[in-house]
Amino acid sequence: MSIRPPGLVRVFFTGQSRNFYPLASNSVDAYPTRLMSNYPGIDWRADDIAFSGYSWTNLTPLAARDLHRRLGHAANNVIVCCGGEADIFGIAGNDTGAVAFADITAYVDAARTAATGHGTNLYAIGTTLCGSNTISATRNGRRIDYNDLMVADAAGDFDEVADLDGTAIGGPASGSEVSGIDDTYYADGVHWNALGAQLAADTIEPHMDAILTTIGYL
Predict the structure, then answer these.
(1) Which helix (H) or strand (E) holds 127?
(2) Does pTM top 0.85 for this prediction?
(3) How are strands ordered across the β-sheet holding 121-127?
(4) 3 domain residue, yes or no
(5) Cβ(74)–Cβ(43) below 8 Å
(6) Is the peptide bond before 6 cis (omega within 30 degrees of 0)?
(7) How many Cβ atoms sit within 10 Å of the Cβ of residue 43?
(8) What is the pLDDT of residues 29-45, one digit of tens each?
(9) Is the CB of residue 200 less than 8 Å from the CB of residue 164?
(10) Is residue 1 in a domain?
């Protein structure tokens, strides 16, 4: 693959702890590092702009401070939205799947507006939400509703959608509070280990390739 000039593409990973685990102290094994090793020459960063217990609605003002001001540094910007359940479902954890999906699309729309204001392009990759071994049955049902809306992406809010929940790191499929995820891929029942991070990277890669092909990087 030929290396394109600096400034053509910049990639942002938005979310919180799943951008940095495992080895949160240096994030060398985290999924963004693994994914971006396939694209030498692309500037990228993982942003800790989510705060555990906040929905994407709460993140929209933070985006203006932490993301939007940087969207003018490259002609094309890609954001990868990959949150944990606490980052998605609101302060009290009571957001429905529909509310949570409306929140994340509002976040992406705000980022697109900011990019346009800088005279640049923005592309968004959405991801379905994996669970944990601590998720309640009620919240798990809301997570599944959210994922159905994300996969359908009926209004075309995202340029690409990566179905992480449809892989081995997904689940629980229904009901149970404490079963359904495969501990082979999890470090602590909530965050992926190195195997889980690699599977997440591999799942997102073809969607990143599709966007980079549209941009003209690949």
Answers:
(1) strand 121-127
(2) yes
(3) 43-48, 9-15, 76-81, 121-127, 160-162
(4) no
(5) yes
(6) no
(7) 15
(8) 889 999 999 998 899 98
(9) yes
(10) no
